[in-house]
Design goal:
3-stranded antiparallel β-sheet, alpha+beta, 13% strand, 5 strands, elongated, two-stranded antiparallel sheet, 49% helix
């Protein structure tokens, strides 16, 4: 059985744009994590200290000394759990919105004159076979002049 080599697969992976999408996601995730961490450390934790009677530097009753100046810090652990739950909730809402948008786009199916269900397909560059914007006269990917302005086509839905 003949397959692609590891290097060829890696080149394909990079060329598909997955790396850029992943990098943007990591950067935005890190920035968002910093915001949530600040919310937990600067707002939620002080509110917990206010309710539980903390002394301003620790959440009273949530730190257990174990000797040598070390503590089991349940307050920090609770903060990390709150941090995780807020981020998980936000990711849930983002995924939910994405799925709703994807499901909505699947419903954009109509029938042609023959009564077959068809969906509109984005125009494709005849040279590099990449998707181009509707109305484009030059391909964004390969810079080729298109023979005519790009128009979407209809494809029969199986």
């Amino acid at each position: 059985m003949k397959g692609k080599g590891l290097i060829a697969e890696f080149k394909d992976f990079i060329n598909q744009g997955n790396v850029m999408d992943m990098a943007v996601g990591i950067i935005i995730g890190a920035a968002f994590t910093a915001i949530v961490t600040s919310l937990v450390n600067d707002i939620i934790t002080p509110l917990i200290m206010l309710v539980t009677g903390g002394n301003g530097t620790e959440i009273s009753g949530l730190q257990i000394p174990v000797g040598g100046g070390q503590y089991l810090d349940f307050g920090a652990f609770i903060g990390a759990i709150i941090n995780f739950l807020i981020i998980a909730l936000c990711v849930f809402f983002i995924v939910k919105a994405f799925n709703k948008m994807r499901d909505h786009s699947k419903k954009l199916v109509h029938r042609n004159a023959a009564g077959e269900e068809v969906a509109e397909v984005a125009p494709i560059c005849p040279y590099c076979k990449e998707e181009v914007n509707v109305g484009a006269t030059r391909c964004y990917h390969c810079a080729a002049d298109l023979p005519e302005p790009a128009t979407p086509t209809e494809q029969v839905v199986a």
